[in-house]
Amino acid sequence: MAKPVSIEVYNPNGKYRVVSTKPMPGTRWINLLVEQDCRVEICTQKKTILSVEDIIALIGDKCDGVIGQLTEDWGETLFSALSRAGGKAFSNMAVGYNNVDVNAANKYGVAVGNTPGVLTETTAELAASLSVAAARRIVEADEFMRAGLYDGWLPNLFVGNLLKGQTVGVIGAGRIGSAYARMMVEGFKMNLIYYDLYQSTRLEKFVTAYGQFLKANGESPVTWKRAASMDEVLQQADVISLHPILDKTTYHLINKERLATMKKEAVLVNCSRGPVVDEVALVEHLKQNPMFRVGLDVFEDEPYMKPGLADLKNAIVVPHIASASKWTREGMATLAALNVLGKIKGYPVWSDANRVEPFLNENIPPPAASPSIVNAKVLGLPVSRL
Ligand SMILES: NC(=O)c1ccc[n+]([C@@H]2O[C@H](COP(=O)([O-])OP(=O)(O)OC[C@H]3O[C@@H](n4cnc5c(N)ncnc54)[C@H](O)[C@@H]3O)[C@@H](O)[C@H]2O)c1
Ligand SMILES: O=C(O)[C@H](O)CO
């Protein structure tokens, strides 16, 4: 029998019951639900990762929709519980939804939402920050300073890598990968090599135009290349950032063999999902190659790190904060709430999940649509004409 969970309730007499498994930033998402006759219940349990049992208890006997988190296991058990409670909608408060079994949701006719776009630039900025921090050894130097070890400028103190003129490699040049590539190309004048299953024409045009601009101003132009294989990126790039989705094709994409083909002084950044990298192999590679550096936002067995990683000076580790800017997190909460609300109210699905800005403007009411439902096609949901 699941233990009772503590909750905070808004608009107790609302017609539709919407549950959020976590308190989320901002109040707009709550107001939007309340204005549309929802009773909003927010789980305030002091437990970071809720179990399936905890969430079943939250769903209860009657629940129209749930906003959940990437730490939760949304599979057959939870979708059947939600369906039994009359629920028709679930939204992750995240763009990645590898924690969700979409086939199970389809089976129960539950719409699955995610939150693309609003976190693109914020996540790319963290990947760029980790790239610079790793290349220039910023965290190591900070620790050295705080430890009182600095006793004067030295020619060899914390020498790192110059980014300008080097090659940045992007694996998974979707929304975030492309935004990161633009930052590194424009900000540090790096050349680009990328690998994705699809061509990113917009990104290529951007780099071409920027290269022409630099040339017209008497500077060396930047270049781009779409690699035929991921291995080409790993072998040629000086800084490599991983931005694919996590699925069967990207699990352990970076393994022992591939690490061995990378440059000895390369920088590897992961802001996608932990299991994209074989972390045990990475720890061994970092030990063997002290000038190889990594910046990691995500880990294979979150919240844990593989043994040895925390002791390595050539690794920068942060706790899955890539999307953690106030604007983005509030926007993610809004998109997740509107995904659920849209399905409850029978609204159509927004036609372009890459253009969610109209939902984020606080000065106007959001469009009457669900911003992003990943299984809309399978469920045969209508698409907005707006
Ligand atoms: N660390 C964080 O806090 C954080 C924040 C946001 C997103 N993410 C992760 O980043 C991922 C990407 O987000 P996005 O909005 O850019 O998604 P996106 O769908 O726009 O981009 C993903 C790209 O990966 C490519 N891809 C898929 N399989 C591939 C493969 N086998 N090899 C190479 N490329 C492949 C796709 O073609 C696509 O272009 C999310 O799924 C999520 O897991 C993490
Ligand atoms: O997928 C996502 O959205 C992140 O991991 C959290 O922002």
From TrEMBL:
Pfam families per UniProt: 2-Hacid_dh, 2-Hacid_dh_C
Cellular compartment(s): Peroxisome
Alphabetic keyword roster: Glycolate pathway, NAD, Oxidoreductase, Peroxisome, Photorespiration
Q: Where is the D-isomer specific 2-hydroxyacid dehydrogenase catalytic domain?
A: 32-348
| Enzyme Commission identifier(s) | 1.1.1.29
Q: Which GO terms describe its molecular function?
A: glyoxylate reductase (NADPH) activity; hydroxypyruvate reductase (NADH) activity; NAD binding
Q: What InterPro entries does the entry give?
A: D-isomer_2-hydroxyacid_DH, D-isomer_2_OHA_DH_cat_dom, D-isomer_DH_CS1, D-isomer_DH_NAD-bd, NAD(P)-bd_dom_sf
Chief place where the protein resides:
other
Q: In which pathway does it act?
A: Photosynthesis; photorespiration; 3-phospho-D-glycerate from glycine: step 3/4
> Which residues does the UniProt record annotate as the domain D-isomer specific 2-hydroxyacid dehydrogenase NAD-binding?
130-322
CDD domains recorded? GDH (cd05301)
Identification of the protein by name: glycerate dehydrogenase
